[in-house]
Amino acid sequence: MEKYVLAIDQGTTSTRSILFDKKCNIISRSQIEHEQIFPKPGWVEHDPIEILNNTYETMLEVIENKQINPEQIMSIGITNQRETTILWDRLTGKPIYNALVWQDDRTNKLVNDYINSKGHEYFRLKTGLPLSSYFSAPKIKWLMENIAETYDLIHKNRLLFGNIDSWLIWNLTGGTQNGVHITDVSNASRTLLMNLETLTWDNDILDFFDIPKSILPTIRPSIDSSIYGFTQINNPYPIKLPICGAIGDQQAATLGQACLEKGDSKNTYGTGCFIMYNTDEEIIYSKYGLLTTVYFQINNDPPKYALEGSIANTGSLVQWLRDNLNLIDSSEEIELLANKVKDNGDVYIVPAFSGLLAPHWRSDARGIIMGITRYTNKNHLARAVLESTAYQTKEIIDSMNKEVGTELINLKVDGGMVSNDLLMQFQADILNCNVIRPKISETTSLGAAFAAGLAIGYWEDIDEIKNIWLKEKQWSPTMPTNTIETYYSKWKQTVEKSLNWIT
Question: How many domains are there within the chain?
């Protein structure tokens, strides 16, 4: 009987379960989207119960679709949207509020007050992160201050915090019946609460935010042969299965791309864009607006670290064209429109819907379109939307080049937007480097599968992972340097115009 590993990939817009075999073939998959909740401008929420139920449903569908016996599954790995914050009652298992999504910026005022008190560097030197509404700590604080029952639950030792990984693992391993409350180092490194060097919750920062340690999960390695816990019988399978891999979605995509040597880099083009640069065991505290984060850890080995640049709106900008402006009927249509014109018609779009993330970290920025004339049509707008993704990526890659003192030669890419040939060629041009798409497209899920499989010996070691990765297509730069400089200069002018909208 053939054996598989199961990857649960809980993302910003959907939940997927995918079964992989040893050659990384996808045996079965299931995907369900969940509701995006926008109660106020800048507020973004998810229903944790809906996400949990979708997880159960996809897990069941993935075996029913191909009539797989659950006994064929050797282990489970989980990857997840990071920073997204849930508080729940350990006695009832019920969340006290919706999940605050990583994109949510309701904590901006709180964060600005804290910045005036401590400044970015205090947090960056401990956690590798600037103080921002992006991360979990301010979201926890907002929930504690605005949901009346939190302090009563803390007093009764019933309140639990977790990002999505912790929420799923706790429920899958029993929930109110002794569910395991853990997180892995990659997710913990995105909370703004973990000390990057000790890999433990930082007492000084906990005191600063007045967050009790009792609500926090235990920090474990991303790939853990000692096993986090076992699924409970009939939840959702009539068999206990080991959960022994957990890794944040962007770290998972980096692992799925086999970025295993120092200097290897990838960009995931999803709702946002997330560029990661493997720094191996070296911690590089950024001077140019990047994040320093844990990449992954195997058992008790020294962890691997990375530099990361996060972009809030790339794929979501395409969705905005589709859903808000009705300029396209499907996301795929944008390439057809963009190809109808030779260039952007001098139109530039900065999609700062809720501020700008790396390398700017400006919550006061808002979206802007510049250069519109009577000549402008929807084809130019479509092209400008795609190009904005490439420009935002360039800002981050330029910062990474400064951090490490070398120019990037190859960028591995994945995510929904990499099927867009026009965008990928423009990305190679504006970066002046090779852009490489892998043969296996489900890199995030694959990274979770690798974590689960490496933990139990399904794959022997990292070297075996390296040999699995295969290139499907490469784009190389063709644009003259002077053209690049002209385009990029106008982009930077547009970015400047987007700042100082919120005071």
Answer: 1
Q: What is the pLDDT of residues 88-97, one digit of tens each?
A: 999 999 999 9
Residue 414 domain-assigned (yes or no): yes
Q: CB of 412 within 8 A of CB of 436?
A: yes
* DSSP H stretches of helix in 200-243: 203-209
Is 113 among the domain residues? no
Question: What secondary structure letter does DSSP report for 217?
Answer: P
Does residue 452 lie in a domain region? no
Q: Going by C-beta distance under 8 Å and a sequence separation of 6 or more, which residues neighbour residue 248?
A: 79, 80, 82, 165, 184, 186, 187, 189, 190
Provide the residue range defining the domain that includes 330: 315-434+477-498
**Residue 319 belongs to a domain with what CATH number?**
3.30.420.40
Q: Is 29 helix (H, G, I), strand (E, B) or coil?
A: strand
- Alpha-carbon distance of 55 to 170, in angstroms, equals 13
pLDDT digits (tens, 9 = 90+) for 3-37: 999 999 999 889 999 999 999 999 999 999 999 99
Main-chain phi, psi angles of 6, to 5 degrees:
-110, 125
Name the token pair of 380. Answer: 């130019």
